[in-house]
Specification:
The structure is a homodimer of 121-residue chains. Chain A is α/β, with parallel strands linked by helices and 121 residues long. Chain A has four helices and four strands; from the N terminus they run E-H-E-H-E-H-E-H. Chain A has a single domain, classed as 3-Layer(aba) Sandwich (Rossmann fold). Chain A has a four-stranded parallel sheet, with helices on both faces.
Chain lengths: 121, 121
């Protein structure tokens, strides 16, 4: 059973966090490649990453892809998220937990940017 | 002559800002829809948005699309960027300056996320 954990930074602004949760829900309706999709946050918001991993496992995940919803490859992407994920791993020795490339690293970003620019009114 | 100004938040970390500048350059090599493409920053980094707009105009732009490289529709996207752009407009009455939807609002984000998740090793 495959799970996807969409991880954003987390904001003091509730609406920003809700957007990420809604995005995770929307993603669930768009793909059948993942049986379980949850949102998680690095800080400032619930669900935090370790709890997000736990939610995926509780839902029956045998593998979890942690997908950093970040544009830049800053400290959060390079150090913080891997560290938190690595700390969580020993609790679930039978679950394959991996981190995906962050969103800003995607080659598809070019097309997305051009399409957003063209959507200007 | 059409210009695109890719606007990111700006970081204290030089590498993050360089990534945005490189992204703007890469974008330039990917599309011929915009004659001029520059990067600009809301704060903490050069070039700031007003100077980015000036650069586009100096390069001959008759229209400028300001594209917010932001995932969430927070205060920066909703208030700060429009305010800065509106303050800059009167200096260039002959230039059509518009703001594109922010990156996180793109419908293509779903496909990008799934593709990033699938790129996990």
């Amino acid at each position: 059973m495959k799970a996807l954990l969409l991880v954003a930074h987390g904001s003091r602004r509730k609406q920003s966090n809700d957007e990420v949760v809604m995005l995770a829900d929307k993603l669930k309706s768009r793909t059948d490649q993942y049986d379980v999709i949850h949102a998680g946050f690095l800080e400032l918001a619930e669900t935090l990453i370790p709890d997000g991993i736990k939610k995926c496992v509780d839902d029956g995940a045998s593998s979890i892809v942690v997908l950093p919803y970040f544009l830049n490859s800053g400290r959060h992407v390079i150090e913080d998220i891997p560290e938190i994920v690595n700390q969580a791993k020993p609790a679930y020795p039978d679950v394959d937990i991996r981190i995906a490339p962050h969103v800003g690293a995607s080659e598809q970003m070019m097309d997305l940017l051009i399409s957003s620019a063209n959507a200007t009114r």
